[in-house]
Inverse folding.
């Protein structure tokens, strides 16, 4: 279990930002499950962080996945606009 220090509020804020981004992206396409997915994106990583104790690895993995998603979305938008 990770130490409950100054990093905990920072970790929770990062998780909230990632969950809000996920919610806002999904809300554009399907509003019925957006809140559920946003909640899961917040709760599951927090649970995994306390279970495994590897907070930095978890946040780094989430940020890499977020960057990959944004890159794919940008490339997809460019491809659609060029046609």
């Amino acid at each position: 279990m990770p130490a409950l220090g100054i990093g905990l509020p920072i970790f929770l804020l990062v998780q909230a930002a990632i969950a809000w981004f996920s919610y806002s992206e999904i809300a554009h396409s399907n509003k019925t499950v957006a809140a559920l997915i946003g909640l899961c994106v917040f709760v599951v990583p927090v649970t995994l962080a306390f279970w495994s104790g590897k907070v930095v690895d978890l946040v780094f993995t989430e940020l890499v996945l977020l960057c990959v998603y944004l890159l794919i979305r940008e490339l997809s938008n460019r491809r659609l606009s060029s046609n």
Summary: The chain has a mean pLDDT of 78.
